[in-house]
Amino acid sequence: MTNEAPQKIYLAEYKPFPFLIDGVELNFDLAPRATRVKSKINFRPNPDSDSREFFLHGENLKLISAKIDGKEISPEVTDLGLTADVPNAPFVFEAEVEISPETNTALEGLYMSGGMYCTQCEAEGFRKITYYPDRPDVMATFKVRIQGSESVLLSNGNPVEQGEGFAEWHDPWPKPAYLFALVAGNLVAHPDSFTTKSGKEVELNIYVRPGDEGKCAFGMEALKRSMTWDEEVYGREYDLDIFNIVAVDDFNMGAMENKGLNIFNSSCVLASPETATDANFERIEGIIAHEYFHNWTGNRITCRDWFQLCLKEGLTVFRDQQFTSDMRSRAVKRIDDVITLRARQFREDNGPLAHPVRPESFVEINNFYTATVYDKGAEIIGMLKRLVGDENYKRALSLYFERHDGEAATIEDWLKVFEDTTGRDLSQFALWYSQAGTPRLKVSEAFEDGTYILTFKQETPPTPGQSEKDPRVIPIAVGLLNPNGDEVRETCVLEMTEEEQSFRFSGLAAKPIPSILREFSAPVILERETTNAERAFLLAHDTDPFNKWEAGRALAKDTITRMLTEDRTVGSDLLDAISKVRRDDSLDPAFRALVLALPSADDIAQTLFDAGHTPDPSRIHTALETVALSYATHLQDVLPKIYADMHIDGPYSPDAEPAGKRALQGAVLSLLSRLDGGNQARAQFAAADNMTQQLQALACLLRIDRGREQLAAFEEQWKDDRLVMDKWFNLQTALAAPEAAVQTTEALTKHAAFDWKNPNRFRATLGGLTGNMAGFHSPDGSGYRLVADWLIKLDAANPQTTARMSTCFDSWRRYDADRQALIKAELTRILETPKLSRDTTEMVTRILG
Ligand code: PHE
Ligand code: ZN
User: What keywords are annotated for this sequence in UniProt (predicted)?
Assistant: First the structure.
């Protein structure tokens, strides 16, 4: 049997809710299987609505009683909510419901994690707590009373009263239900405080389970840095007396910006040098900032409806990226972000899941927390800022906060503040929000009589539901170099608006070498006929660090694709160019490490596919190994010296500078281990006093002799640390040799510590396999089968994480007919599972196309 096609919701059908809310009171009486929730909601007719239909969302609730103006009513109740007759005047609605947090494995609504109660309400989880208009445009102030025996009882806003077995909270800022949160547990606090620029004292806490106290200090410092930064850069101050963060082990996403009570996946907040890598530290800092920044971009100004999700997410990602580039290295941050954008968003935009940054319809909103909404949403803001300039961006943002504070806004509202600030017409620019697909930008050039002409042609391939595309506004940052390597024209931004457009640069003595799309000024795919000699030239001379790195990356990609399509070997052009950068001590070590890193197998597969070839995962794997070995032999003489030069004396610090040194040292170690049988890696593993270096060494040894001895030692050392054990699971499936990957994964799913209901553990283990391209795509289909089996099992417990992980199949049409048939069979099997969730049904249906 096939599951019925679930109902679609359309942006075009938006209607305001017929009632407004003047205040909400909630009362929780906690019990694992029978929590009682009493609500009292003051409604009044909404003058902007002509309907008086009273429907409240509610799912998996046991209704005990309902009252209107104190009188018991018998509302009509379905699986989705409650309908009642109400007066055409202000009225009070009261309800009492019973819910079961302990059996809530979907991790939406009120659930339990490691003995504590916690909530997740975005996007539509509040309806699993009580009957309510669970939509972001209904904003209200909340008073919450919690009764429970736990030592810590938290909700949003400011604490009003605490006593034996109860606590009361009041949130004075009107908010939509998705920002509601409640936590109850025997937790310990890592306390601190912050004084805002206007002198307000704010109490800060990070709450964790006993035993994790030692992993809070970095997160707390990151929080204070974020608070200062938002005051300095955006003029935004915090607006409550208290700001709490709680770490939970079972969480579907990274973290959640609930008003005054952020809830974090413990992997995104807990860190100590021994247990977290440099990358973890940087990510934690970025996510803390992201959630904190939501207080203004998301909470004070929220979204009118879920189609506007990018209004808060795109902007908040953009803000957290700005923050990280201010805290660390701007160049390295931009390169990292573009690598992620291409790996996740370009992949999405070029496959069956492509959708506009502001989608026009959805079945399950949880399926739209995507790289497109988040990361392309952030790129759009970067383009806007580049087009209007920094000063206008600042003015537009001030106007945005002034005009829409306390409101649920739209993308139209957002663009309007830029139009009103600058007088620009942004109707063509708005296409970035409505058109899916990554534009291809073809470049051609001419030089005559001292004038250099660059001609661009833009084209966006069709995407599901959108066959025709209109030309967009594309800001193209360009600089020109002389053949001797000097910059003859500094960066300028060309504003492309036509399908085809030329730009002239006159007064040049010689034909210049162009550096196009500096800083990756637009999320497009640049297509330009060029030589590896020119790429090597740009890698050596470009003053724009992004394009300098990009030239090296293009050179490596060209080499690898030719190895696969023309049976070429690794050429000296690549090796010489890379080794120059590798040896150049004047460059930031983090940058040198990025130049050393090879493109991912997935990137190569997509590139081959775009060029009309059928990628073969195992040959791609071999080619990448071959290039790594060539790098190693070519640099043989300098590797030990670089390794030694990157040594850091003194205690570990997660700052950008030492982290960059460790990154380069790790890249060098990986090459060295291909030559020395793993001696250096074994020594590093034995001596490591921090997770970064311990994990780097373990990764090298896995490739050499499967690291048996070190894996066992690592497990013994870390068996009681959940987050570190996630790394242990992940490394083994992610780095297993192609022929061993499925078997290794299967064995790990039988390990006593494989808790499949914990999303972190599930993702670490199965996600490691799906990211191991050659292993996942084993020609016998065993990788597909194993992953499909687990997705089917997980779907019954946790639809959201299942649906998200089903995207591992989204690029199935790239591969050969046999693999396509195998994948299609697995996708069909998933789709035919009885009672498959709406989440997974929508995703798999779209992937099948
Ligand atoms: N709003 C969260 C963020 O981006 C993400 C999230 C969405 C978390 C849905 C949980 C559920 O910061
Ligand atoms: Zn967010």
Answer: Aminopeptidase, Hydrolase, Metal-binding, Metalloprotease, Protease, Zinc
Atom of ligand 1 nearest to the CA of 287: 12
Residue type, 619: R
Residue 492 β-bridge partners: 478
Q: Which of 94, 150, 291, 519 is catalytic?
A: 291
User: Which residue out of 250, 253, 375 has the highest number of ligand 1 atoms within 8 Å of its CB and is therefore the one to mutate?
Assistant: 253
DSSP letters, 96-123, are EEEE-GGG--S--EEEEETTEEEEE-TT
Identify the CA nearest to 751 among candidates 741, 742, 740, 761. Answer: 761
pLDDT by residue (tens digit) across 593-620? 999 999 999 999 999 999 999 999 999 9
Instruction: Express as a percent the part of the chain with pLDDT over 70.
Output: 99
Say which residue the tokens 């460790």 belong to.
Answer: 662
Q: How far apart are CA 233 and CA 279, in angstroms?
A: 25
How much is the pTM?
A: 0.98
CA angle, 814 as apex, 808 and 818 as ends, to 5°?
Answer: 90
Q: What is the pLDDT of residues 548-574, one digit of tens each?
A: 999 999 999 999 999 999 988 998 999
- CB-based contacts of 356: which residues, under 8 Å, 6+ apart? 372, 433, 434, 435, 436, 466
**Burial category of 585 from C-beta neighbours within 10 Å (exposed 0-12, middle 13-18, buried 19 and up):** exposed
Ligand 1 centroid to residue 577 C-alpha, Å:
42
Ligand 2 centroid to residue 319 C-alpha, Å? 10
Place of tokens 């970064």: 692
Atom of ligand 1 minimally distant from the CA of 374: 4
Kind plus residue range of the DSSP H or E element containing 255: strand 255-256
Ligand 1 site, CB within 6 A = 120, 122-123, 253, 255-257, 290-291, 313, 369
> What is the distance between the alpha carbons of residues 248 and 254, in angstroms, rounded to a whole number?
10
Strands 19-29 and 35-45 turn out to be antiparallel
Alpha-carbon gap, residue 652 to 629, rounded angstroms: 31
Distance from the CA of 122 to the center of ligand 1, in angstroms? Answer: 7
Structure tokens at 181: 């949160």
ipTM score here? 0.99
Q: How far is the CA of 341 from the centre of ligand 2 (A)?
A: 16
Is 291 annotated in the active site?
yes
